[in-house]
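Protein 1 of 2
SEQ + STRUCT:
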Amino acid sequence: MTQPTETDTIWVTQEAYDRLQQELAHLKGDVWADITAKIAAARDEGDLNENGGYHAALEEQGKTKARIDQLESMLRRAEVGDKPADDGLVEAGMLVTIRFEGDTDTEEFLLGSRELLSMDSSVDMDVYSPTSPLGAAILGKNVGDSATYETPNGKRLGVEIVAAKPF
């Protein structure tokens, strides 16, 4: 799956949006202040070349800054909406089960954004954007419908929508 660009909209519930905002505020507030204090304390110890605490704090600062940037990007791109109706129509925010043409096994995934998953850290599943080839092919279809999409290598795959329920 490709990385989202700054213009890709992500669908999130109000709950997920609020949680992302809270995480951002926490990182920019308490966490950033704590890291800054660690860096200052390590600088006061003297020689920075061999100061493990200083280098660890700089690494933590870099990771925190990357997460802050990621959260700010997601919040700029977020489209807040209600959970979709449980009517079998495939749309963002749905847990979709498909069967590939010629296969008996099914696959289940979230059609939406990974940010919806982090509300429950015990959930581990594939996530497809509604703008991905598979997502775009099934978006707006109903349970029982079939769709065909083109993979990045040019192969065409057919799928049947077995189930679609709100996540």
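Protein 2 of 2
SEQ + STRUCT:
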Amino acid sequence: MFSTEWPMAYRLIQKVRKAFPGRVIVVGGEHITSVPEFIIETCPEVDVCVLGEGEETMTELMDKLSKGQPLSSVAGIVYREGGLAKRNAERKRIIDVDKITLPAWDLVPLHNYLDNGLGYGVNRGRSMPLLATRGCPYQCTFCSNPGMWTTRWVARDTHEVLREIQLYLDKYKATNIDFYDLTAVVKKDWIVEFCKLILEKKMDFSWQLPSGTRSEALDSEVTDLMFRSGCRNITYAPESGSERILNKIKKRVNLGRMKDSMRQALKNGMHVKINIIMGLPDETHWDIWQSLLFMAHCAIMGVQDCEAANFSPYPGSELFKRLKTEGKIPAQIDDDYFWNLSTITSVFKTTSFSDHVGAGALRFYLLFGLFMFYGLGFLFHPIRLFRAFVLNPLRSRQETRFEKGYQGVVRRIFLKKGQPKPPQSILTH
């Protein structure tokens, strides 16, 4: 549960409480970890908030509840006691992540997802989500990771990851794996071993990194191995083209090195996407123009996709705490605040937290940036027009996020009530 989803989650919790008045309701995730006292105070239906990693905490919590024992000794929770929120001691991170059992997907109606092409990445067939690593070693000020996971990054054993993937290929007939890791590629040795094992085992599946990753370990050798082992889509997260802003938000990234890595990924056959944030505190018009120039260079270079997002201060992040202290975020946050966080996905409803760039100017930059990026991309790589609008829709195939968005729009138009369905060839699976 992320903060943008809380208003909907709250309404669901209310319905669950009405249906099961005597049950204990436990919630967890990024949003809950960031504001557990707020949850207890404003959502009387919730009994317990699990903070951070939940596996060991939930196991101990269920044991205490089943025995009718007090919850005061359960580390890593905030719970309701006498109508008030009581916070227990923090729980240490799980050391051996390979001992965590695999997700019980048999308890989930997976067919609803697999049969309808639902997933975070580009639709490359029946896609299963997977985490190969946990946490992120960096401290970006717009991210809630330090509060949720701390800054300890840990990778699972490559053999264990492939064992899980093989299970999904066999049991669910998956053809693609979406890695949802915060920062999947940190150590070169790990990703090289992972790719070589896929090749040695002759495993046949595609995989993607749709969440965004860093570039330090992604050189020509690594990106070549990634492509040969099935990686087809990769997302880089520069966030800004301004070195000044990168320093402000503690995004320790070398833009020149990242562009070199993207060139190697493109040369080796992968489809590349970049993430850019605009409207950050302290950001000036010149800082945004530097981001726009960076986007233009990437488009000309051959990068296929770009997500230019309006900055949203998420609870739990360093910037959220700063803006709340400065009075730019209400002392009492409510549903309206959480709904407004969803403007990260919309360029038509913008909120600027910069003292130098207004909401109207920010909206212009976001729209201009996206039109410029894709315009330059199609101009310098015209074959993409035919592939995106004709060839891939006819083949029911997606290769980029742009194509996913375009085919999704077509699908919704044709599936509106009272309209005939389009030929299957222009629908995604």
